[in-house]
Amino acid sequence: MQWKKEIRSWAIMLGVFAILYFTGLTTPIMGGLQSLLLSTGLIKPTIGHSEREGQDFDFSGQFMDLHGDRLGLSQLRGKTIFINLWATWCPPCRAEMPHIEQLYQKLGEREDIAFLMIALDDDFSKSTKFVKDKGFTFPVVHAAYGLNPSLQSQAIPTTLVVSPEGKVVFYQEGMSNFDTQEFREFLMGW
Fold this sequence. Notes:
Number of domains: 1
CATH superfamily: Glutaredoxin
């Protein structure tokens, strides 16, 4: 009798997972849960702990913006640049986006700081629909022309900060809540 209950429990769990998988809800649900985790403040960016920090940033490379125009990295020289590599199919990317939006709302108007959210989806329309549906206002571009060596990463999300002098001053693979007082001060300090 006990084994029948066990089989029924497993069948229900597998059924729930199958529904989530086949309806495409796994990514948004996982992203939402991870975003709640980020809201606790337990996962914050760690400043000053990457081997890439201090390296020269490669300003070659172009991206396609929401209007289909090209944006060259060289256009952002002389500013502190917050760069995030992401995709709609990546739950941790989705998790940190509301927090990046909050950061952008606080610092996005500054002339000395540029935000660049680089979408890696094959179909840029998926990225633009996601951003529009969520009401995000940060600048989004597509990696339609590839990534230069400074932006190559083994994982997403990946976030970099480039100083006005063209040095990588922050590099992190994985999600974080970037809307912290410490990180805002870090961005404004360049």
